[in-house]
Design goal:
The chain is an alpha/beta fold. It has helices at residues 8-30, 45-61, 76-88, 107-112, 125-132, 141-152, 172-181, 196-201, 241-245, 258-282; strands at 4-5, 35-41, 64-70, 94-97, 161-165, 185-189, 205-208, 226-229, 250-251. The strands form two sheets. It has a six-stranded parallel beta sheet with strand order 1-9-8-7-5-6. The longest helix is centred in the last third of the chain and has 25 residues, at 258-282. The chain is globular, with a radius of gyration of 19 Å.
Length: 286
């Protein structure tokens, strides 16, 4: 068996085409261009690259982006003040705080300063709760992108055993909740899990989200399983790709799998936020 590629680049391109049409319709109807604010703290080269990519994608779909760059030595209080100003700004539809932030910053406090209506990256407690209870909140962007990718390939989830490796607040935990909402049976694994190989070998769907290259051995994969590799370090995923691809039915490449879906989901949620804001201003439908 050789796995079929879950092509995030191709699927994200279709999503961005749709977003571009929605942005054009929004601008024609309102005379206002949706805007995503990106907040970057410090000089991490990878973070600068990610923010630049997001700004470029905004431009391609017709959105504005506003980039706020802050010194690495900034305090949590000052960062929170900047984010609250963006939350109060009627010209801003979505806010992205590029993470990770410097270690002395209370990242959770900074996330919670984002107004839930502008939390298009899905990082606040409010967004997580609304997503978990299926109450219409914004999904965390990477988990939301993973679900959109699985849907694009009509991969059934109901009744399947999904193993999520990782428990971060913006990836592992929310993707497990989204899978649970699709009637999958979800097992969370992490750094303290005993016999990780045994859990992976029982999974119909594996989502690896740790950032440790080669953590998941190819021979652990159950024949016919679906493998989603959301890990990324040194241009390598968490899963031994070649060996896993010989056993899986579907697999994401790294890069080119989950990454493009994250940005597409972020922008899809930004145009949704813009419509919601306009509906609130005018009292009309979203």
């Amino acid at each position: 068996m050789t796995a079929q590629i879950l092509d995030g680049r191709a699927v994200s391109a279709k999503i961005l085409d749709r977003v571009s049409r929605e942005v054009e319709e929004f601008v024609d109807a309102t005379g206002r261009v949706p805007c995503l604010a990106t907040v970057l703290v410090g000089d991490d080269p990878a973070s600068h690259t990610y923010v630049r990519m997001k700004a470029n994608r905004c431009a391609k779909v017709g959105m504005r982006s506003r980039r706020i760059e802050l010194d690495a030595g900034i305090t949590t209080e000052t960062l929170v003040d900047h984010i609250r100003e963006l939350s109060d700004d009627p010209e801003i539809d979505g806010i992205l705080l590029q993470h990770p932030v410097p270690s002395h910053i209370d990242e959770r406090a900074a996330f919670e300063a984002i107004a839930p209506s502008k939390d298009v990256d899905g990082v606040t407690r409010t967004s997580f709760a609304r997503m978990a209870f299926d109450e219409g909140g914004f999904a965390s962007a990477t988990p939301g992108g993973i679900m959109a990718l699985l849907d694009a390939y009509d991969i059934p989830l109901s009744g399947k055993h999904a193993v999520v490796i990782g428990r971060s607040a913006i990836l592992g935990r929310p993707v497990g909740m989204l899978l649970l909402a699709r009637d999958a049976t979800v097992t969370y694994c992490h750094s303290r899990t005993v016999d990780l190989a045994k859990h992976v070998a029982e999974a119909d769907v594996v989502v690896a989200a740790v950032g440790r290259p080669g953590l998941v051995r190819g021979e652990w994969i159950k024949p016919g399983a679906v493998v989603v590799d959301a890990g990324y370090a040194d241009n390598t995923g968490d899963v031994e790709y070649e060996a896993a691809a010989e056993r899986a039915s579907y697999i994401t490449p790294v890069p080119g799998g989950v990454g493009p879906m994250t940005i597409a989901t972020l922008l899809a949620q930004t145009i949704k936020a813009a419509r919601d804001h306009e509906a609130f201003r005018t009292g009309g439908p979203a």
